[in-house]
Amino acid sequence: MSQSTTSQSTISLLTTAVYLADEAATVAAGRALGECLTPGVVVYLDGVLGAGKTTFCRGVLSAFGHSGAVKSPTYTLVEPYAFSAANIYHFDLYRLADPEELEYLGIRDYFSSDAISLIEWPVRGEGFLPSADFIAKVLPEGHGRRLELIALSKKGMSVVQTFTDKTG
């Protein structure tokens, strides 16, 4: 794992990275991150098609008690999960033709202080999504994947630091 802090004007960015050898490690990293999340957090998931973003989300959801299948909401755009600790909304905007379609979906209703939002392909919703607290990049590397977390807000910094301390 590597970690760095960079100062850019008034914002300090905290980043960390870890190698994930296989699917089980990807789910475990998602679970560890899920244990660090608090309501109100917005997570952008970045990575190429098939990199493991949805597998990672399965781990996040398992931290809240979900044990069933987790499918990518490619056609429905959003899959809601209700837990006592928080409502989690898993978005996949890959097939979104126009970001304005999010208005018809009632996108603003999903981002509340009691919700956690996991957003795959956020670039396709640009201009209609709230800013991310951090970005989770899942990138192919060797026979496995590399997970990079990049904090973009104070909330994000807290999550990334807690994850780093936990997985250290």
Describe the 3D structure.
The chain is an alpha/beta fold and 168 residues long. The chain has a single domain, classed as Rossmann fold. 24% of the residues lie in helices and 33% in strands. The protein contains four helices and eight strands. It has an eight-stranded mixed sheet with strand order 1-2-8-7-3-6-5-4. Helix 1 packs across helix 2 (53-62). The radius of gyration is 15 Å and the shape is globular. GO terms for molecular function: ATP binding; metal ion binding. It is found in: Cytoplasm. Belongs to the TsaE family.
User: Helices and strands: which structural class?
Assistant: alpha/beta
- Provide the β-strand percentage band: 25-35%
Radius of gyration: 15 Å
Please state the overall shape, judged from the principal axes of the Cα atoms. globular
Indicate the mean pLDDT. 89
Looking at the structure, the CATH topology is Rossmann fold
Would you kindly provide a brief summary of this structure?
The N terminus is likely disordered. The protein starts with a strand and ends with a helix. With 168 residues, the chain is of the alpha/beta class.
Comma- or semicolon-separated keywords:
24% helix; metal-binding; 168 residues; eight-stranded mixed beta sheet; disordered N terminus; 8 strands; nucleotide-binding; single chain; Rossmann fold
Write the layout of secondary structure elements.
Blueprint: E1 2-8, E2 11-20, H1 23-34, E3 42-46, H2 53-62, E4 78-82, E5 87-92, H3 101-105, E6 115-120, E7 134-141, E8 144-151, H4 154-167
Parallel strand pairs: 3-6, 3-7, 5-6
Antiparallel strand pairs: 1-2, 2-8, 4-5, 7-8
Helix pairs in contact: 1-2
